Each structure stands twice: as C-alpha cells, then as structure tokens.
Amino acid sequence: MRVAVLGTIAVGLIAKVDRLPRPGETVPSRGLTREPTGTGALQAIAAVRLGAAVRLYGRVGGDPFGDEILTALHGAGVDIAPVERVARLPTGASLVLSAPNRQFLAAHAAGANGEVDEGYVAASLPQIREADVLLLDQALPSPAVAALLLGFPPTRPLVVLHPMPLANVPPLPWERVDFIIGHHGTGTAPIGAEEAARLGQPFLDRGVRHVVTIASGEGAYLVERAGTTRFPVQEPVVPSPKAQAAFSAALAVRLAAGRGPYEAVGFANAAATLAATRREGPLSFPTAAEVQESLSRPSLPSD
Fold first, then answer.
1. Is 184 helix (H, G, I), strand (E, B) or coil?
2. Hey, how many other C-beta atoms are within 10 angstroms of the C-beta on 296?
3. I need a labelling partner for 123 at 20 to 30 A (CA). Which of 22, 169, 225, 236 fits?
4. Exposed (0-12), middle (13-18) or buried (19+): which is 129, by Cβ within 10 Å?
C-alpha cells in the first residue's frame, strides 16, 4: 500500500484553554505544546499508523522549526526525502486554541509550503506516479495542483482531494479527481442526505467520481451518480483537524489496499471517531488493528 501525500506541513503551537475566547478577549492557557501539524503532515503520520508506506511531498523552511518537524515525521516512519528545504522562508506554522470540549480556534501561516509551484510538482511527478493513492491538499497553490493532476495518466494513482470548496471553485481538471472530501462543521444543523447530494452534485458534474461529506454527529455521506449513502457513527464527535486527517488517511489506505469505496468510507469513519476521542498528539492516531476492532463491536441501537 503506497500512499503519497502532498499537503501542508507545519509546526503547531497549541495552547490549552478552559474555553475559547470571545472576539477581543484574552483567556489564560493551561499549557503550550508544540507538535507536527498541517494537513499533509498529519495525514502522513495517520497513514503510516494504519500500515501504509507513505512518502510526503511539500516544502519547509531552513529554520529550527523545519528541523524539528522533519525529525518528528521521520521518527513516525514517514519517508521525508521528497520534502524540500527553502532557506529564505520560514516553516509553516499553525496557532491553535484547544478547549476541553475539543472545539478549537486556529490560524495558519503557510510559510515555505505556500511556495509549492509547478517546478516542484514537475520534479516530483515521476515518484508520485508510483503511488497507489495520492492525498492532495486543495489549499496548495492552484497552478501547482492543476499541473500535478494534468501530469497523471487516466487511472493511476487514485486521487483523494480535500477540502471540498463550497465557493469559488477553482478551474482544476476535476475529471482526474477520484474522491473529494468536505467537512460540515459542528454547531450547525444536520445536513441529511438530500443536502449532501446538493453539495456534491457540482463536483459530480465536473467529473469527480465520488464526493464524501463528513457531517458532525451524522457520520459521512458518500455521493455518487447512482445515489447517496450515509455511513453513521456510533458516537458523535467534533470533527477536529486530527479526526479529519485520520478520515482522509484511512480512506486512502483502504483504497490503496484495493478495497471499494463503501468499505473504505466505513473504515475511514471508524478511524476518525477513534482519533477524535484521543487527546494525545499525532502519534496517538489509531492503528489498523484498532480500527478493525472498533468495527467489530455491535452498533448501539438508535432511538
């Protein structure tokens, strides 16, 4: 199972607070931690934990943060050889306020990863083509994302793109995207299958094969031309960045193993639920055995 990841790589400065501040308010922190973050870094670690051989692509700065995050990723088992150092730029960074109820506020500075361009993609393309699945971050510069998709043969590797843009959809070669993943955040009304289908239809019309929407408290919806399928969760969880990374990574790993979309989405749902309930850092992502054990438990009866 060979998974390539091209996405954001950053260091996370995470302050634990008793509650999130209101606009203009300062709240005390119960501690500050520093750990790898960014969609690409988190997905890479999660996919390794699930048993895949993972190669990470992207850029970091020539600063101590770059040294720190690459050391952590290498220690987690991620192949970081393709990650490029850019001495003139800082490493990307995320500032996160995390509350006990798992809600959070965050700000992200792209740093060197914002300089991923067509030249870097062209140099990386031969290696990325060898993967079974590519996890691709739509937040990267659109010209680089488009160049990468245009450089692939028609069917390999499978491409999982995230997040799903709900406005200002960029002009990408969407027909080369196999899965796109969107998130419906906490604190909003349930969306239901009909709304999930409405959100997914513009991407199906553009040629995307499968649209997945993760809905807080509802599980996930898989939208295809044949219809919409809901994958419920045993317990509602807040869709934190860690849970979202676990979902995407688990989907990619299962697809890389040759499984179909229904089994892959169900596996990803369970992985995200486990990840969301763990307070520890990135190395606490669930293993494949833990996800399988979770899936073997009987479902709770619904009201």
1. strand
2. 8
3. 169
4. middle
Q: What is the pLDDT along the chain (303 residues), one digit of tens a residue?
A: 899 999 999 999 999 999 999 999 999 998 898 888 899 999 999 999 999 999 999 999 999 999 999 999 999 999 999 999 999 999 999 998 988 877 888 898 999 999 999 999 999 999 999 999 999 998 898 999 999 999 999 888 999 999 887 777 888 999 999 999 988 755 556 788 999 999 999 999 999 999 999 887 788 999 999 999 999 877 666 667 888 899 999 999 999 999 999 999 999 999 998 888 876 666 789 999 999 998 887 654 333
What pTM does this model have? 0.90
Q: Which domains does the chain have, with CATH numbers?
A: 2-18+32-289 (3.40.1190.20)
- Determine phi and psi for 121, rounding to 5 degrees: -65, -45
**What's the rounded Cα separation, in Å, for the pair 292 and 12?**
30
